[in-house]
From TrEMBL, chain A:
Gene name linked to the record: ATP6
Membrane topology: Multi-pass membrane protein
Lineage: Eukaryota, Metazoa, Chordata, Craniata, Vertebrata
Record protein name field: ATP synthase subunit a
Transmembrane segments: 6-31, 67-86, 98-117, 137-158, 164-182, 189-222
Protein keywords: ATP synthesis, CF(0), Hydrogen ion transport, Ion transport, Membrane, Mitochondrion, Mitochondrion inner membrane, Transmembrane, Transmembrane helix, Transport
PROSITE patterns linked to this entry: ATPASE_A
PANTHER family listed in its UniProt record: ATP SYNTHASE SUBUNIT A
Record-level GO BP terms: proton motive force-driven ATP synthesis
Protein family per UniProt: Belongs to the ATPase A chain family.
Native source species: Canis lupus familiaris
Ion transport keyword on record: yes
From TrEMBL, chain B:
Subcellular location: Mitochondrion; Mitochondrion inner membrane
Protein name: ATP synthase subunit b
Quaternary context: Component of the ATP synthase complex composed at least of ATP5F1A/subunit alpha, ATP5F1B/subunit beta, ATP5MC1/subunit c (homooctomer), MT-ATP6/subunit a, MT-ATP8/subunit 8, ATP5ME/subunit e, ATP5MF/subunit f, ATP5MG/subunit g, ATP5MK/subunit k, ATP5MJ/subunit j, ATP5F1C/subunit gamma, ATP5F1D/subunit delta, ATP5F1E/subunit epsilon, ATP5PF/subunit F6, ATP5PB/subunit b, ATP5PD/subunit d, ATP5PO/subunit OSCP. F-type ATPases have 2 components, CF(1) - the catalytic core - and CF(0) - the membrane proton channel. CF(1) and CF(0) have multiple subunits.
Origin species: Canis lupus familiaris
Family annotation (Pfam families): Mt_ATP-synt_B
Gene: LOC100688796
GO molecular function: proton transmembrane transporter activity
Keywords associated with the record: Acetylation, CF(0), Hydrogen ion transport, Ion transport, Membrane, Mitochondrion, Mitochondrion inner membrane, Transit peptide, Transport
Any GO BP: proton motive force-driven ATP synthesis
CC annotations in GO: mitochondrial inner membrane; proton-transporting ATP synthase complex
Family: Belongs to the eukaryotic ATPase B chain family.
Predominant subcellular localization, coarse grouping: mitochondrion
Keyword Transit peptide: yes
Protein task: Subunit b, of the mitochondrial membrane ATP synthase complex (F(1)F(0) ATP synthase or Complex V) that produces ATP from ADP in the presence of a proton gradient across the membrane which is generated by electron transport complexes of the respiratory chain. ATP synthase complex consist of a soluble F(1) head domain - the catalytic core - and a membrane F(1) domain - the membrane proton channel. These two domains are linked by a central stalk rotating inside the F(1) region and a stationary peripheral stalk.
InterPro entries for this protein: ATP_synth_Bsub_B/MI25 (IPR008688), ATP_synth_F0_suB (IPR013837)
Length: 226, 275
């Protein structure tokens, strides 16, 4: 089955055909379209959650920023559902792949920056220099702010990848430790199993939190630039 | 077939943007009625916007309705129909034995290998089952409550509208009843006016009578005064002439006669005592 620790992170392919596209598209099935006025329980709960999240997330934006509502909501739903599905046994999580996270982070970040530079050039350029810096420090601070700006997409992508990958790896390792300890000492194995359960709970939380953080940061970059 | 759409249909022509009139059966997507759909960029978006409202049946074939609740399952995965399917041949315990046998077979033949993932699977699935068993019913009730709130809101609007219309009907009925009794008011007013007219007539009549009587009284009093004046004048004239006619001789004789009479009386009187 799994030869080494990292086999579960390889892009899945069945008989040579890449099915990673199917896996990426799968979570969209889990969010049915509300077709009636009164829907079933799943759709009602999803509608309520989306309303709650969107109200809270779009409260800080002005009219221009709120045109991004669909994008941000889709983002948080996609990342959240993908992360949560990845916790199931023997499943593949697309967000563990740096390529995909970079593909999400760079265009979104670039979109916010270009929007800012296009419509409010002076204000966007002014972001490079925080208020109240003493005069001799200005050149260095501009360089530092530029670097910090260009690191943002990298940080977004790597943060998500690292967190999810690390979580999966830990679960794998501790599961392996439990397996190895069963033959040696059942009590220790049991303790390790408890640790595994706690870790799983943490991973569920991390899955949702990472989705939220990603979306929130994009929203913040948007707020700065609209 | 154009004109105002029926009460159940979405009056699209009244809305801004000139969207399609759905009341036209089957002709919703013809170019004449939906010029906006010809726009290749916005057409699909308009189509999506139209599809939200179901005014036609979803499919033309006679398919049965979607059931309200899902079918019954055992162990959360296997539908009960499977158990019914195996029951005639293997009895009640048949499916369970089948399941156990399959699991043991796959384990022993290492078709399913116990790896680290097994334990993570146990922990994850165990956690999920625990959460579902503990909070499943309450989350379901919460979802039902959300739907109920939505329905209650709309129901309230409907009831308020019905109440408003009912109040309007009652007001109209009472107004109509009042109109029926309006003739009382008119009768009273008519009576009032008649009385006022009568009063004015009598008052004027009385005034006329008084005026006429005044004038007649004046004439009468003038006549009386004239008569009195004539009488006095006549009496004065007669007196004057009588006094004039009494000459001095006659006066002396009359006075002497009176004195003689008095002397006679005086002679007769002293025999009477003075009281």
């Amino acid at each position: 089955m799994n030869e080494n620790l990292f086999a579960s992170f390889a892009a899945p392919s069945m008989m040579g055909l890449p099915i990673v596209v199917l896996i990426v598209m799968f979570p969209s099935i889990l969010f049915p379209t509300p077709s009636r006025l009164i829907n079933n329980r799943l759709i009602s709960i999803q509608q309520w959650l989306i309303q709650l999240t969107s109200k809270q997330m779009l409260a800080i934006h002005n009219q221009k920023g709120r045109t991004w509502a669909l994008m941000l909501m889709s983002l948080i739903l996609f990342i959240g559902s993908t992360n949560l599905l990845g916790l199931l046994p023997h499943s593949f999580t697309p967000t563990t792949q740096l390529s995909m996270n970079l593909g999400m982070a760079i265009p979104l970040w670039a979109g916010t920056v270009i929007t800012g530079f296009r419509y409010k050039t002076k204000v966007s350029l002014a972001h490079f220099l925080p208020q109240g810096t003493p005069l001799p420090l200005i050149p260095m601070l501009v360089v530092i702010e530029t670097i910090s700006l260009f690191i943002q997409p990298m940080a977004l992508a790597v943060r998500l990848t690292a967190n999810i990958t690390a979580g999966h790896l830990l679960i794998h390792l501790i599961g392996g430790a439990t397996l190895a300890l069963i033959n040696i000492s059942a009590t220790t194995a049991f303790i390790t199993f408890i640790i595994l359960i706690l870790l799983t709970i943490l991973e569920f939380a991390v899955a949702l939190i990472q989705a939220y953080v990603f979306t929130l940061l994009v929203s913040l970059y948007l707020h700065d630039n609209t | 077939s154009d004109g105002a759409p029926g009460p159940g249909h979405w009056d699209a022509d009244a809305a801004a943007g000139g969207l399609v009139d759905l009341a036209v059966p089957g002709g919703a997507f013809s170019g004449r009625r939906a010029p906006c759909l010809k726009n290749p960029v916005l057409g699909p978006g308009v189509l999506q916007a139209i599809r939200i409202f179901h005014t036609r049946q979803p499919s033309l074939a006679p398919i049965p309705c979607v059931p309200e609740y899902g079918g019954k399952v055992c162990l959360g995965l296997i539908p009960k129909e499977f158990f019914q399917f195996l029951y005639p041949k293997t009895g009640v315990r048949g499916p369970y034995v089948l399941g156990t046998g399959l699991i043991l077979y796959s384990l022993s033949k290492e078709i399913y290998v116990i790896t680290a993932e097994t334990f993570s699977a146990i922990s994850t699935i165990g956690l999920l089952i625990y959460v579902v068993k503990k909070y499943g019913a309450s989350i379901g009730e919460f979802a039902d409550k959300l739907s109920e709130q939505k329905i209650a809101q709309l129901e309230e609007v409907k009831q308020a509208s019905i109440q408003q219309i009912q109040d309007a009907i009652d007001t109209e009925k009472s107004q109509q009843a009042l109109v029926q009794k309006r003739h009382y008011l008119f009768d009273v007013q008519r009576n009032n006016i008649a009385m006022a007219l009568e009063l004015t007539y009598r008052e004027r009549l009385h005034r006329v009578y008084r005026e006429v009587k005044n004038r007649l009284d004046y004439h009468i009093s003038v006549q009386n005064m004239m008569r009195r004046k004539e009488q006095e004048h006549m009496i004065n004239w007669v007196e004057k002439h009588v006094v004039q006619s009494i000459s001095a001789q006659q006066e002396k004789e009359t006075i002497a006669k009176c004195i003689a009479g008095l002397k006679l009386l005086a002679k007769k009187a002293p025999s009477q005592p003075v009281l």
